[in-house]
User: Fold this.
Amino acid sequence: MSAAIVAPRMRWPLRAAAWLIAAALVVVAVRRIDFGALGSALRGTAWGWVVLATVCAVVGNTLAQTRRWQALLEPIPHRQRASFFDLARSGAVSSLLPARAGEALRVIELKRRRGYPAGPLIAAQLAEKGIQAISLGLVLGICALLPGAWAPPLALAGALALTAVALLAVLPRRAPGVAGRFLDALRTLHAERSWVWSLLWSMVSDAVDLLLVGLCLRALGIEVHPGVWAMVLLSINLALLLPSTPGHFGILEAGAVVALTTAGVAAAPALAFALVYHAVQLVPGTVLGALAISVPWK
Assistant:
């Protein structure tokens, strides 16, 4: 039996286990909810704070995430440089699709429309994922320094992120030896230090996400320490690592509810927060993606 056949079969047990874990998180969260109290919490939402959070999500995240990607593209050869609008448009369109499909579409569009080679684009996307993880860890580590924060998980995330930055800083910028095009592309990104600006913009994006958590909590009248905001953001991002439904429905909410109830918040307001926060993240991105589809490349 060929390895190509064996490998997919070996992945099925891991995938099934991940789905079971995801389903268990949702079930545990739902069983603790008083839906009458949930409705009451949602009716008491201060929608002005939600509108402010939505504006921050649209402006702040669009700017920071597009600049993060733009920084990584700088050292990649191209026929025509992609503008900020090109990258914002392709990012908005790709956000409508599942992760891998969206990433593939972004590569295809930039290769066809602007002449970027596919290999370096894929390498840049891989580098972007690493940068996202590092930047989140750094932001959480900063939150661990706040007086009164529940430090251990946040401090661990920060320490791991600082270690990763240190390793990137001391690695040789020009690795010797012959490598394939993909590894050469990763080395180019490292040699040109394009990851530094990308990391800074990624931290801005994570800081905006942290602010969104705080604004949505304020909208629901949930008063907790900013360190809890960081724990909510960490819990949500850990939950999103699991295989999930389209739009992460259920998984994101479960991650938020687990973090907030652990911090002493009642289950109904916690779920109300999760639904509002998810809407702030999902609705603007969907609307922008739908609008971006109708805008042609120039």
In short: Residues 46-293 form one domain.
